[in-house]
Design brief:
By secondary structure, the chain is mainly α. Helices cover about 50% and strands about 5% of the residues. The strands form two sheets. A five-stranded parallel sheet has the order 3-2-1-4-5, sandwiched between helices. It has a two-stranded antiparallel sheet with strand order 6-7. It binds flavin-adenine dinucleotide, ligand DLZ and iron/sulfur cluster.
């Protein structure tokens, strides 16, 4: 008899490990445990979503004929970690082997590889996670010999592999990438669909009460807990996106609008990452929309690229370079994370709106993460470890394999430009161009050195100035340095002095 361990982000019926187990003979174990629920201070909604989705999945498995032993969270349990639970079950069931699918996170996979088989006294069989489009070794082969990686080239391989938007070996429409069409500010007219709000069943209610009680000191609120927790709700969320959002997804992908949490984004990442939806299912649905002529190419290509391109690419980088990737700090940052990343209280309107979205919904869309809260951390030189822990804690979709390369690589440029060629540093001008935040802000986006000048403006030039040496060989930064050098010395000095003042009182902004 074998014991199959299913982790919280493996809630998929045709998971590799389930395919090799036999419901007649083998048993499944799933467990809510302290160590997984608190290795960072996960947002309350992230824990509630995961625990409830796990409990629903256990039901789904039982209905399909599996014998499932489920450990609900108990703060006083003698079992604090997954290995504690598994050890207990191996002893009580007499299992001869433990079977599982490769963990999403290095932390857990490494612990398993190092000590589980020895501690349990039985073999541990780990199967590759084939819910992803590319295997980790396929990615490693592609990356082999390349000094710098570029998502675009990997993405083209994935287009060829999947056949999405391909016609006779060529990209649909003649171009691989329609990103240039996807940078519009919101037009102020196109109405935003209201994201679905799911009804709560008894399992959800139990879990919400449990999280409120046991994780009261974790960030975020449970008041607007709207995430789906079952496969059918996740499917409904996908259907909603395809029907009401995809058409405008491309055009307004980079836009930000005050008080609007999702715009035309899909809100599907938590389901993809915990296994309630698969990448193939989501991309098939989007591709079908294109084939039925129900959405434009820039939208469908942009959406599919995020999944078979970016999502797969960051996972590849993660597994190729862990564990040392997590320690990289190429820009030698030393500053602590400002207070408002945890309490949300700042006069910067853009940051305040992103924090509100984050704490109310365990969500912020990509440009909010990249160009507002991420950009600010980059410009102010926050230590990569602190900002990575923050992103890992506060979002419902956050798992180390996807959060770390996005934060450490894409946002913080702490891998020295391995993941992306140029830092996404920007002044307030970019935020002003893409949003309506600045009109309602305490600070003025038009000026740089006044008492009420937008902090992003001088901090941007401070970043450029202090990292001249780091970027001296980066051709994509040449133009920025030429602009800086054309400023007269007095102006430069005033900007740098203003930024220094801000850096000395960051918590007060
Ligand atoms: P949409 O805009 O609707 O995009 C569709 C899908 O594409 C997403 O659901 C997601 O699966 C995928 N996707 C898009 N961009 C990326 C990307 N850069 N990397 C990987 N997948 C992508 N995404 C996570 O899933 N988990 C994280 O922990 C995470 N941390 C991030 C941290 C930072 C600093 C940044 C800049 C980005 C991070 N992202 C993360 C990527 C992206 O912001 C989210 O995937 C996206 O905002 C999720 O919302 P959505 O489902 O509405 O996405
Ligand atoms: C994120 C999370 C949380 C909050 N809790 C659990 C849990 O109690 N049990 C579990 O199996 N998984 C949980 N997860 C997801 C895990 O952190 C995730 O499965 C691993 O990190 C993947 O390597
Ligand atoms: Fe953000 Fe600056 Fe605009 Fe205020 S003025 S919203 S701080 S970019």
């Amino acid at each position: 008899m074998k014991l199959g361990l299913i982790l919280g982000d493996q809630l998929t019926p045709d998971l590799a490990s389930l395919r090799v187990l036999d419901p007649q003979q083998d048993r499944i174990v799933m467990a809510e445990v302290r160590d997984e629920a608190s290795y960072v201070k996960h947002h309350k909604q992230k824990i509630a979503l995961l625990f409830s989705a796990m409990r629903h999945f256990a039901e789904e498995l039982r209905e399909a004929g599996w014998q499932v032993d489920y450990h609900a969270y108990d703060a006083n349990s003698e079992f604090k970690s997954l290995i504690d639970v598994v050890e207990h079950h191996v002893q009580t069931t007499g299992a001869e082997r433990l079977v599982l699918t490769q963990c999403g996170e290095y932390r857990l996979q490494h612990a398993m590889d190092r000590k589980w088989a020895k501690q349990l006294g039985i073999p541990v069989d780990v199967y590759g996670d084939d819910r992803f489009i590319a295997t980790t070794s396929e990615f490693a082969d592609w990356a082999d010999g390349r000094k710098q990686l570029r998502m675009e080239y990997f993405y083209r391989e994935m287009r060829r592999k999947t056949g999405y938007l391909m016609v006779d070996g060529e990209p649909e429409g003649g171009k691989w990438n329609y990103d240039a069409d996807n940078r519009k500010k919101w037009d102020g007219k196109t109405p935003f669909p209201n994201p679905p709000v799911f009804e709560r069943d008894e399992i959800d209610q139990d879990v919400i009460a449990l999280v409120a009680e046991e994780f009261a000191d974790h960030p975020g609120s449970l008041d607007a807990f709207h995430w789906g927790t079952t496969r059918s709700q996740a499917n409904a969320a996908l259907g909603f996106f395809i029907q009401y959002c995809l058409t405008n997804f491309g055009d307004f992908q980079d836009a930000m609008v005050r008080g609007e949490r999702a715009l035309f984004h899909s809100l599907l990442s938590p389901y993809l990452n915990c296994g309630l939806l698969t990448a193939k299912q989501v991309c098939d649905a989007a591709h079908q929309t294109w084939q039925d002529k129900r959405a434009p190419l820039n939208a469908v290509e942009g959406f599919i690229r995020q999944i078979i391109g970016w999502r797969e690419y960051v996972r590849g980088i993660y597994w190729l370079h862990m564990p040392h990737y997590a320690k990289e700090n190429a820009l030698n940052n030393k500053r602590a994370l400002p207070r408002y990343y945890w309490d949300g209280d700042t006069r910067m309107a853009c940051m305040s709106d992103c924090f509100k979205n984050t704490f109310d919904h365990a969500y912020a869309h990509h440009i909010q993460r990249l160009m507002v809260t991420g950009n600010f951390a980059l410009l102010t030189g926050i230590t990569p470890e602190e900002i990575c822990d923050w992103y890992l804690a506060v979002y419902a979709d956050a798992y180390d394999w996807v959060e770390l390369p996005n934060t450490l690589g894409m946002v913080m440029h702490a891998d020295g430009g391995y993941l992306g060629s140029k830092p996404y540093a920007a002044s307030g001008n970019y935020i002003h161009k893409m949003s309506d935040y600045c009109s309602g802000c305490h600070y003025s986006v038009k000026t740089q050195t006044e008492e009420d000048s937008c902090p992003f403006n001088s901090l941007y030039w401070h970043f450029i100035h202090r990292h001249r040496n780091d970027f001296k060989n980066n051709h994509r930064m040449g133009m920025v340095y030429r602009t800086f050098d054309r400023m007269n010395d007095e102006k430069k000095e005033r900007i740098i002095a203003r930024a220094d003042t801000l850096l000395n009182r960051l918590d007060d902004l």
